[in-house]
Amino acid sequence: MHRAGIIIVFLAVTASYLPFVDKAFHLDDPVYLRVAHEVVADPANFYGFDINWYGYFAPVYEVNKNPPLVSFYVAGMAQLVGWSERGVHLAMLLPALGLILGTYLLARRLGAQPLVAALATWLTPVVLVSSTTVMSDVLMLALWCWAVFLWVSGLEERSTPRLIAAGLLMGLCALAKYFGLALTPLLLAYGLFRERRAGAWLLVFLIPVAIVGAYQFYVRARYGLDPLMDVAQYALTLESKSRYSYPEKLLVGLVFLGGCLLPTLLFAPLCWSRSVLAGGLGALVAGAAAVPLVGELGGFPLAAAGAIRWGVALQVVIFALAGAQIIALAAADLSRRRDAGALLLVLWVGGVWIFATFTNWTTTARAVLPAAPAVGIVIARRLSLTESAFSLSRKRFITIALVVGLLISGAVAWGDYRLAGSARSAAEELSGRYARGGSRLFFQGGWGFQHYMEKAGATRTSWDGTQFSPGDILLVPGQGSNLFPPPQNLTRVLEEVKYTPTSWISVMSKLEGAGFYASLFGPLPFVFGPTSPERYYAFRVEKPFVLKRE
């Protein structure tokens, strides 16, 4: 049965991942790819170049606020599979498999039905979408899950090799993403609660401390930068500019937690009594009626043209209820079991949610992602203690919930896939159209659009003094970061081009309130409903001018 479960997990993850294997490079993917290319050229100087990512040239370590482990991994795998979208995404399938298999083994160790826990983790929007990126999050979480599994099993079996392996993975986890540092105090708390006393096992924590300390020393010596202090200052600086009040942050944090893990709400009939479910339905109705009265959420209007946006308001309430259920399930698990595993899970879920809501520079799906395995395990543990509130058989209900979860998560992943593809299409089509005739081609905007525009030979404008001459062409996306309107008296609009990723779901749209990768774009991670097209504008320079920061 154990072997069959692992095979099912392997097949489920691979089959649902492969449709997205040719996804365009998206969001911050190009930064990690640039570092990976530098690793191939000079592994000891992985941050030894400047990049124009914010509209001006700066050292790449000022842009990429993460350590370079995923770029080293991509650099190594690219020597085998190449640098194409298909090759790189196939390489990123391995961390995704590692994440879910690690969840499976950990769930089994913590007394949960492992297949349910693993599939309930995988079939969530945040895990499926994040697995199709080239960013650091999924690799970090795969290392995290295996470290927790080895630590838990190592303490139970008094296995020194497993504890040492867990210590090594703790260190590597932090080198994948700095949030991985949170794993060390989490496992320390678990160990102290389980063992009830200090012991030689505490010495294992010197391993991640040594690994992170060595990295910190190397980066400071090589680049004159304290990476941990730098990322902390960056987060505090941007967080201070947040437009969300603390009550709004609380609500948006619940919305992101519940939305990113939305299929977990489908298990509610198996997790709660009829009275609790009735209370949840009442909260849904009351919330749907109350949210529009707020008027706006973080600057995003919940009414348009005098009409309440009921679809968006209802999604806010449903997502928030799903988030509240997740926290309630973790708390109930601790209240009922009162064991070290329950403490581990509640600290895991609660710590991630607090960080994503109040500490990170913006609430993002990527910040919520680390909670996914713990939530899947909590649900699987809960299912072993409760009876269904309905007559439908338990196995059939779980199967239906997982299938519906696949449809929801696949829809969100498809929306993200199409959004990434629209930037690639725009870059390839517009650069091909305007690169002819000898005109110099410039562009604004980052993310995937920058990757494909530079691949086509175009130059990103820089506030450091880009000089424009009559006849130059400037391409500008309508949505993105670090954009500016070119001077109307010095340029002429040639055309506006529209690309519609999908007509029924938005993952990054200020108009629809979707901010999967940053709540600065909107208070929901994604929005089901009518969408707006991605717009791109082509300008011709009529008179010379120099672009400079004022």
Quick synopsis:
With 550 residues, this protein is of the alpha+beta class.
* Helix content, binned percent: 55-70%
| Low confidence ranges | none
Q: What proportion of the residues form beta strands (DSSP E)?
A: 5-15%
- Number of helical segments? 20
> How is the largest sheet built, in terms of strand order?
8-7-10-16-11
Shape: globular
Radius of gyration, in angstroms, nearest whole number: 24 Å
According to DSSP, the number of beta strands is: 17
Major sheet, described briefly? 5 strands, mixed
Structural class: alpha+beta
Task: Give the number of domains.
Answer: 3
Instruction: Give the distance, in angstroms, between the N- and C-terminal Cα atoms.
Output: 67 Å
Average of the residue pLDDT scores? 90
Question: What does this 3D model show about the protein?
Answer:
The protein is an alpha+beta fold and 550 residues long. Helices cover 58% and strands 10% of the residues. It has helices at 2-17, 29-41, 69-81, 85-109, 114-122, 125-131, 137-157, 160-176, 183-195, 206-223, 227-239, 246-260, 268-271, 274-294, 310-337, 340-359, 365-368, 372-383, 394-434, 447-455; strands at residues 50-52, 57-59, 296-297, 300-301, 303-304, 307-308, 441-443, 459-460, 466-468, 473-477, 491-499, 505-506, 508-509, 514-515, 527-528, 534-541, 545-547. The strands form 7 sheets. Strands 8-7-10-16-11 form a 5-stranded mixed sheet, with helices on one face. The protein has a two-stranded antiparallel ribbon with strand order 1-2. Helix 1 packs parallel to helix 5 (114-122). The longest helix has 41 residues, at 394-434. The model has no long low-confidence stretch (mean pLDDT 90).
